[in-house]
Structure formats: structure tokens, C-alpha cells
Specification:
A: alpha/beta; Rossmann fold; 6-stranded mixed beta sheet
Chain lengths: ~400, ~300
């Protein structure tokens, strides 16, 4: 129905929203006017259907900025600057996000840009960064499409979407029994299209036969047709990519339609998040997933100490545990701090050049951008075992996987 | 030899094809029942009050949360939580209509669209503030169970939702056709002046009708939470689907709305299987356009 009234209504609403927005902005005291500050701008999904993941970025940015400021801020050519965040709510609307980034750059004149959540958003928002030549470091979009356009002002801390299943497939070839057939199921947004495009050649070179290769619509909550089709092909492994709410629907409907992979199922997004385990309960068990980050003590960080200390600080302040999205967000802020110090200047081009050279150990891992601007990191395979997240495999096995996955009827 | 092999292989293939068709057809029917139940309230309110309720999806969402908190939060038995939710949502809808929507019910269509759109925004944002954007699932022990009929897997919850949808639609039909209240509701819809002359109080009839619509939406939200999940933002697509179903089914007969739901459910399931799920929206809204072209009178008469 929205489609029918969207035109006049959205105009009316826009008309109503603009004064409200202006009022809100005017009411916010410019806290960063007095002391020397560097303002980082971002438009993030604080409300709307991606708000559940958007919060990782809001909270990650805030925590990182406070931690850096608590240790004296950023040293720019001998002068100490504090970091400040100018964050807007893009309401999970890509078009609104683009307008907000233009506003951040042209009206609010923020120094640098942090990214939104999700590849679709980062893909469009980064155009603003490129156009106005303001560097953006984003930790929410993994799609290769973001980096394939030759842009010079976009940097990213999520590893390439096309490689998400790489370590999983590597692990599969070392397991017994070895899978032979695979069903690949991907959403139609830019992240998942990239994942699928990257996974197909990996499957081919591993000698796995793809018996089902299906794309689904992000807007559709119903998987019954795809699941029934997958069932008819009886694959050994199901590799699924999409976002968290769809993962929940997929798994619940798989159980209710009694669809079982012969050996295992893996999901690109959702598995590392505590919300996923809470929503599914025991049905989350045996699900494989992946994460570029785990809260480890071995990940040393100049501001937080280490990955574990960061996770504790995050949990304590926000009341829920961080996943790799939050760690990636923190790494974005830290990359700016490092690059600005190295550049010794707030000049966009100098900081942009410094970003190409950053190389430091952080709670997220080694932060170093490749020639396209994207970080390169291995994905750790993880699995839910008895309601707990267990790291299984990176380049070799870390813990023993529960394998093969029993059929639904034998699980409870 | 190879020819024989091929033949049996071929037969096996086509058997799989038939089996798959049957399974997806059943999936579509079951999903369609739920769609029908979702649209029932929207169709009723539209037909009687001439309000196209853009907050309908948000009301489904609120019903989902009510069931979630009753069942998961307070530990109320699911079979009690569903009727209890209907009662709570009825009161909510009654109050909403009586003290808010009744104020503008005589004004232009655009005003009712605007106010329900506004309500939708308010409900959704309040829900995010109150319940957070976390995804909630309603998970009674039988939620993932299924049984098999002729090699076709039937999920218990979807089947239950389908039966409940049929039952509630039949009940609504009975109430509308056979009871005094139903006659008053139909009379108000058909001829307000005449109904008034016969002593019907439209204010209370409107509120009761809206309450019934809200109760039906609420219970469908709970059932949807068992199949999928509940989040503050689930409503937008559901409003759109309810709209399509209500138009498909016509606005005078609850059983027609269920039929509309079945048509949409089967069409979506088949599209997803044979064309790809990306096209499901194209098909459902294509159906809508077709109906509007073929039966424009439905809209003109009723709205």
C-alpha cells in the first residue's frame, strides 16, 4: 500500500520532518566548538529494519572515540585534538543516507567520514566521499563492488564478501565425510551478490557440485519454495548468505519443513551475534558461520589493551556483547586516529594518503588497507555448540566441529 | 540399456518435479491462509468504515509483541495467549477508533490515509523504543514440528495458522450474517442514515468493527511470530500484502478475503519456485493491478 501513497505522503512527511530535523540540530549544543576537535561524521541505521545491526556502529564509534579521547586524543603536529562524532539516523533508507552524507560534508563540514552498516549503503554513501574528496573509512560494507570503481577516498575494514566462504570450504575439504554437493542460497543485495559470485569459483575449484543455486528477495520473509526446492536436491551442504532476520526465518522454516543438509549448513551473517542465538534457542545449534574477529586476548590494541578487554568494556557500557561489526567500527575510528597522527595534518588529501599507509595492530586485528582500499583478513569458521559460540577453523582447526549435523527430528 | 536407464532417470526426475510442485502448492496454501487472516481485519475496516488502514501492519506487529510477551515473558500458555491477545487488541482497537479515528471518519479519504500513516510511524517508533530492534521469535515447543501426508511435509504451525484463519473467517462470516451486531455492522456499511433511523449507534458500531479488525490482526501477528519473527519493522510489507489480499478477495465477504490470501500465497510460492523469489513482489502487485483494471468497481463502490 505504501507504494501507492508514497509520492504525496513522503513529500508531506519530508515537509514535516525537515523543520523537526532543523530544530533538533539547532537544539544540540556545539560541544566541540571550544576545544580543538576533529569531527567524524556518519549516517547510520539507528532506526528502521537494519537498526539491530546499525547499533553496533553507533556504539562502536562512541566507545572508540571516548577511549581515544581518554588517552589524550589525537596528536596533530604537536597539538592535541579531541575526536567528536556527528551521527545522523538514516532510518535504514539508502537514499536518505546519501543526502545526510552530503549534508555532513557540505553544511556540517565534518572533517572525515565513518561509514554506515551494510554494503548497499556503503556502496552509495561512498560516492559522496569520493565526490567531495573527504576520506571515508567504513566497517559495514564488504561487497567488492564498493572497491571496484577505482575510488580513492574509500577505505574499509570488512574483508571481501567474495571470500566469506573461503575458509569454510577449505575446512569442508578436510572433514570426514567430505561433502560432494552444495546448495548456494543468496539474497539479491550487493553484499550477497558479491558473496555468491566469489563462492561459485571456490566451490568449483574444490570440486564441489552446486545442485541448487537460488537467489531470494531481501523483502520476502518466506523461504518455503526455496527450501522445498533445496530439499528435492538433497545437498550435502547448504551455504546461505543474507542478513540476520532472513537467517532466522530460513532456519525456522527449514526446521518446520524438515529440510536437512546431509552434512552441514553455514550462514554468512547472524551466527556471531548473541541476538541470533537468543531468537533461535536450541535451533541455533550446529549452525556454522564465520567472523573475521573474535574477542581474543592476543589482539593487542593501543587504546583498549586487547580484544577481550574491549569486549568487556563494550558489554559493560551497552549491555550486550559486541560482534565483529562493532570491532570493525572501532577499527575505523582507530585507523583515522593513526592516519591523522601520521599525516600531522587535518588536510583531506594528506590524511587520505596516510590511510593508504596505515599498518597497526588493533583489537580487530592488523589494520592495513590493500590497493583498492579494502582490508584483507581471513574469516574464522565458527559454530554454535550447545548455545555457545565456538571458534572452529581458521587456517587449521581450533576446536572440534560437531559434524555431521543430525537431522532436525533427531535433535531435540 | 542406456535408453532404459535414461527413461527411469527421466521418470525419477519428473516424479521429483511433481512432488516438488505438490509441496510448494501446499506451502502456498498454508502461507495464503495466514495472509488471509492478516488481511481479514483490513478488509473489514475498509468495507465498513471506509478507512484504508495504513497502520494495519503496525497493529499486526503489536499483536506479535503481545503474544511474545505473554508467552515468552509471562509464561502464559500459547493457546491462552492467542485469545488473550485478541481480547487485548480488541480493547486497543476499540479505544483507538472511538476516541481518535471517529473524529475524522467523515472527512476526506486523504485525511484517514494521513492519520493512519502517522499512527503507523508512531507505533513503529514507540515499538523500537519499548521493545528494541532485536528480532523476537515465538517458539512454543511444537513450533518447528511437522507431519507428512503423501510425501508432503506439513509444518504444524503453518497448518494451525491456516485452520485458525479459516475458523476465524467463518466465525466472522457467521457474526456478520446471523447476529444482531453483524446486521448492525452491515447496515451501517450499506446505509448509514437508514441504520441510524433503526437505532444503530454508528460510533459504537465503528469502534466495535475496528476492534474486531484489530483483534484479527493481532492474532495473525502472533502466528506470524511463530512462523517468522517479530520486529518493529515487520509491518510495512504486511500492510502491502494485506492490501493486495483485501482487494483480491473483495471487501464484503470474509471468506472471500481468505480466498484472496490463498491466491496470493500460491502465486507467490509458485513464482518463487519457477521464476525466482525476486519476482514475488512483481507478481503480487501485478495481480493487484490486474484486479484494479478488471474490477475497478470494487474500489469505487467501497472506498
Amino acid at each position: 500500500m505504501n507504494r501507492f501513497v508514497k509520492l504525496p505522503l513522503s513529500k508531506l512527511l519530508f515537509g514535516a520532518a525537515m523543520p523537526m530535523l532543523a530544530l533538533g540540530l539547532a537544539a544540540a549544543p556545539p560541544a566541540y566548538a571550544q576545544e580543538k576537535t576533529i569531527v567524524l561524521g556518519a549516517a547510520v541505521q539507528l532506526t528502521g529494519n537494519l537498526a539491530n545491526s546499525g547499533r553496533y556502529y553507533r556504539d562502536g564509534y562512541n566507545l572508540a572515540i571516548d577511549a581515544i579521547n581518554a588517552k589524550g586524543g589525537v596528536n596533530v603536529g604537536g597539538t592535541k585534538y579531541k575526536l567528536a562524532l556527528n551521527i545522523l539516523d538514516n532510518q535504514s533508507d539508502v537514499n536518505l543516507g546519501v543526502r545526510q552524507y552530503v549534508q555532513l560534508v557540505t553544511r556540517d563540514k565534518v572533517n572525515f567520514l565513518l561509514g554506515p552498516f551494510a554494503s548497499n549503503d556503503a556502496l552509495d554513501d561512498s560516492v559522496v566521499a569520493e565526490k567531495y574528496k573527504v576520506p571515508m573509512v567504513q566497517g559495514g560494507g564488504a561487497s567488492g563492488q564498493i572497491y571496484s570503481r577505482g575510488f580513492k577516498y574509500i577505505f574499509g575494514t570488512l574483508p571481501a564478501a567474495g571470500d566469506y566462504f573461503k575458509s569454510t570450504i577449505e575446512m569442508l575439504m578436510k572433514l570426514n565425510p567430505k561433502p560432494k554437493t552444495v546448495a548456494l542460497i543468496a539474497a539479491d543485495d550487493s553484499f550477497d551478490v558479491s558473496v555468491a559470485a566469489g563462492t561459485r569459483p571456490l566451490l568449483a575449484s574444490a570440486g564441489l557440485t552446486v545442485v541448487a543455486d537460488k537467489q531470494y528477495s531481501e523483502n520476502s520473509p518466506d523461504f518455503s519454495s526455496i527450501l522445498s526446492f533445496v530439499k528435492s536436491t538433497s545437498p550435502d551442504a547448504i551455504l546461505w548468505t543474507g542478513h540476520e532476520p532472513q537467517a532466522l526465518s530460513f532456519i525456522r522454516q527449514a526446521r518446520s519443513l524438515d529440510v536437512n543438509a546431509g552434512l552441514m549448513s553455514s550462514y554468512t551473517v547472524g551466527v556471531p551475534s548473541s541476538d541470533f542465538r537468543k531468537a533461535l534457542g536450541p535451533d541455533a545449534d550446529y549452525a556454522f558461520g564465520m567472523t573475521p574477529w573474535l574477542p581474543l586476548k592476543t589482539l593487542t590494541d593501543p587504546w583498549f589493551g586487547d580484544g577481550m578487554a574491549f569486549a568487556d568494556a563494550y558489554q559493560k557500557r551497552f549491555g550486550y556483547p559486541p560482534d565483529y561489526h562493532a570491532a570493525s567500527a572501532v577499527a575505523d575510528v582507530e585507523a583515522f586516529a593513526k592516519a591523522i597522527e601520521a599525516a600531522g595534518s587535518l588536510d583531506s588529501d594528506k590524511v587520505r594518503d596516510a590511510l593508504t599507509k596505515v599498518d597497526f595492530q588493533s583489537l580487530y586485528g592488523q589494520v592495513k588497507f590493500g590497493s583498492t582500499g579494502q582490508i584483507s583478513m581471513p574469516q574464522s569458521v565458527i559454530q554454535i555448540q550447545n548455545g555457545k559460540l565456538v571458534p572452529i577453523y581458521q587456517t587449521d582447526f581450533i576446536e572440534k566441529p560437531l559434524y555431521p549435523t543430525p537431522v532436525w527430528s533427531k535433535r531435540h | 540399456m542406456p535408453a532404459v536407464l535414461n527413461q527411469s532417470e527421466h521418470r525419477e526426475q519428473s516424479e521429483i518435479g511433481v512432488q516438488l510442485f505438490g509441496q510448494v502448492f501446499v506451502n502456498g496454501v498454508l502461507l495464503g491462509g495466514l495472509y488471509g487472516l492478516m488481511a481479514l481485519g483490513m478488509g473489514l475496516v475498509w468495507g465498513v468504515l471506509r478507512i484504508v488502514n495504513l497502520a494495519h501492519g503496525a497493529i499486526i506487529m503489536l499483536g506479535g509483541y503481545t503474544v511474545y510477551y505473554l508467552y515468552t515473558g509471562a509464561g502464559v500458555d500459547i493457546w491462552l495467549a492467542l485469545p488473550l491477545t485478541m481480547a487485548i487488541m480488541f480493547c486497543f482497537g476499540y479505544v483507538l477508533q472511538r476516541y481518535l479515528l471517529n473524529l475524522i471518519i467523515r472527512s476526506a479519504m486523504l485525511n484517514t490515509l494521513l492519520i493512519t500513516f502517522g499512527l503507523n510511524v508512531v507505533f513503529v517508533y514507540m515499538a523500537q523504543l519499548a521493545f528494541s530492534a532485536d528480532y523476537r521469535t515465538i517458539n512454543p515447543p511444537f513450533a518447528g514440528n511437522n507431519f507428512e501426508v503423501l510425501g508432503i511435509t506439513v509444518p504444524v504451525v503453518q497448518f494451525g495458522a491456516f485452520v485458525i484463519a479459516l475458523g476465524l473467517a467463518a466465525l466472522l462470516w457467521l457474526v456478520l450474517e446471523r447476529s444482531t451486531l453483524g446486521r448492525a455492522i452491515r447496515a451501517t456499511a450499506q446505509n448509514l442514515t437508514a441504520a441510524r433511523l433503526y437505532g444503530v449507534n454508528p460510533k459504537s458500531i465503528y469502534a466495535v468493527t475496528f476492534g474486531i479488525g484489530t483483534a484479527l490482526a493481532g492474532v495473525s501477528g502472533g502466528l506470524f511470530g511463530m512462523v517468522s519473527q517479530v520486529s518493529p519493522y515487520m509491518g510495512v510489507t504486511l500492510t502491502a500484502k494485506s492490501f493486495v489480499v483485501a482487494i483480491l478477495g473483495g471487501l464484503d465477504n470474509p471468506l472471500g478475503v481468505i480466498l484472496g490470501g490463498l491466491v496470493l500465497g500460491i502465486a507467490e510460492a509458485m513464482t518463487a519456485l519457477y521464476l525466482g523469489p525476486t519476482y514475488t513482489d512483481v507478481i503480487s502487485f501485478g495481480l493487484l493491478v490486474l484486479i484494479l483494471v478488471a474490477r475497478p468497481a470494487v474500489l469505487l463502490e467501497k472506498a
